[in-house]
Design brief:
Number of strands: 21
Largest sheet: 6 strands, mixed
Helix content: 25-40%
Number of domains: 2
Radius of gyration: 24 Å
Low-confidence stretches: none
Strand content: 15-25%
CATH superfamily of the largest domain: DD-peptidase/beta-lactamase superfamily
Structural class: alpha+beta
CATH class of the largest domain: Alpha Beta
Strand order of the largest sheet: 4-3-2-8-16-17
Length: 456
């Protein structure tokens, strides 16, 4: 009886939890059987713009077509009989090869030997905003993620360099041999970068949690700080003078944050980072890289100082930093991010719909409100002031991350933030690779272009 109950429980678990994963596995040969009777369905953006569809020639030959070319390459992915499926083409493979057409039509098709039309996957993506982000990145390698602050809907996910999914078979060898550009890599979710000064938000939260009197913090910045023969410089050796915690964040003062890092209990610092999902799984249907926080009780002074300002061994993806920003904008609660709004049959009748739901509380509402205030100061008076005075309000954090030990001028440029501060609307995270030291604000200007296109 116990074995029978266990077996029944597993069958229920498999049906509810594991079935979709097994059906979508590239090793599941049943998918080929689906394709014998169903024409692969469409994928659209939230406004009905077609992002992927199957063209059927007069002789019955089916060709997967991507009208936007490489603009949606990484998030939508590709579907090819020889090279498999990626992106949403893989995640939603079962729905795309399932037909919920009117049953009379399905019966007629069965008797006449015709294929049924697969269901349509309606994504949360916005084609106009995606195109704006793609254009704003220009020739830079990098990524952009845009989400709704209150729901977790992902509106934009761009990665560059990209590839054309329409010619994936012809370009396969070239794409796989291009190690310098890695065009098949989704930098938004799979990119692993030093977060630079965007990580100072994590350090700030750790300091707030460990010091009830954090509002009284002061530091006199002389442009550099030296401890145990290790010297940390502020960007361009800028002298920020007398600062409190707010101005330390607004000015992105490396010296102040190195000082803060040395004052922290490392074990509790690690707990805060892991509360924000470092060293943890992330909510994502797409493949991603885990973010890492490496400090421990044996870390030396240099590593602590570097980590506190977002360098050292700390690594994060643009997607993860967008999730942290979304939680701050949403009062401390991370909404479960999602890319599919609904599934309909090919005629538009709704089959299922996703609704916003919370994933985890990463911080208290009071902590989120305080971080929001500091991030607002970054735009109003600090390193992202280029975003002030626009048709929307914004809050955020800039970052410049060195990635070359031999050349400190080689940096990645970061920006993460959100709009309409009093009632947060959009969350955005931008990274550009390989800027020189003078281009630390490149990500901020790109974010401004994208947000202007949305609001104006």
């Amino acid at each position: 009886m116990v074995l029978f109950i266990a077996l029944m429980a597993y069958i229920v678990y498999f049906t509810v939890v594991r079935a979709r994963t097994v059906v979508n596995s590239p090793y599941n040969q049943r998918q080929e059987a689906f394709a014998e009777t169903v024409i692969r369905g469409r994928i659209t953006d939230r406004n009905g713009n077609v992002l992927a569809e199957t063209d059927v020639a007069e002789d019955g030959t089916e060709t997967r077509n991507y009208p936007y070319g490489d603009v949606f390459a990484h998030v939508i992915g590709y579907s090819d009989p020889d090279y498999g499926n990626t992106g949403l083409e893989s995640v939603e493979n079962f729905e795309l090869l399932t037909s919920n057409a009117f049953f009379v039509e399905k019966i007629q098709n069965e008797f006449s030997g015709e294929k049924n039309m697969g269901d349509t996957v309606v994504t949360t993506l916005d084609a106009d905003l995606q195109q704006a982000a793609y254009d704003a990145l220009g020739s830079y390698k990098g990524a952009v993620v845009v989400m709704e602050a209150s729901t977790g809907r992902i509106l934009t996910m761009v990665s560059k360099p990209a590839y054309n999914p329409n010619t994936i078979a012809a370009d396969w060898s070239t794409l796989n041999s291009d190690s310098d550009n890695s065009p098949l890599l989704n930098r938004a979710t799979q990119g692993s970068y030093a977060p630079g000064s965007t990580f100072k938000i994590v350090t700030t939260l750790a300091f707030m949690r460990q010091n009830s009197g954090y509002a009284d913090y002061t530091y006199d910045c002389t442009g550099a700080i030296t401890r145990d023969n290790v010297t940390i410089h502020c960007v361009n050796n800028s002298v920020h003078g007398h600062e409190d915690l707010r101005s330390s964040v607004a000015n992105s003062c490396n010296s102040s944050f190195a000082n803060i890092g040395l004052s922290l209990d490392i074990g509790k610092y690690r707990e805060t980072a892991e509360d924000l999902l470092f060293n943890s799984a992330l909510p994502s249907v797409l493949n991603y890289s885990r973010s890492s926080f490496a400090l421990n009780e044996d870390s030396d002074t240099a590593e602590i100082m570097m980590t506190a300002m977002g360098q050292g061994k700390t690594m994060a993806s643009p997607y993860h930093m967008a999730l942290i920003t979304q939680a701050i904008a949403n009062g401390g609660t991370l909404m479960e991010p999602y890319l599919v709004d609904s599934v309909t049959n090919y005629a538009g009748t709704q089959i299922r719909r996703n609704v916003p739901k919370s994933y985890a509380r990463l911080m208290t509402s009071a902590e989120a409100a305080q971080l929001k205030e500091y991030m607002t100061a970054v735009v109003e008076e600090g390193t992202a002031s280029v975003l002030s005075g626009r048709s929307y309000t914004a809050a955020g954090k800039t970052g410049t991350a060195e990635y070359s030990q031999s050349d400190s001028s080689r940096t990645h440029s970061w920006f993460m933030g959100f709009t309409n501060v009093d009632n947060p609307d959009l969350v955005i995270c931008v990274i550009t690779e390989g800027s020189d030291g003078s281009a630390g604000g490149k990500a901020v200007s790109i974010a401004g272009e994208i947000l202007d296109s949305y609001y104006n």
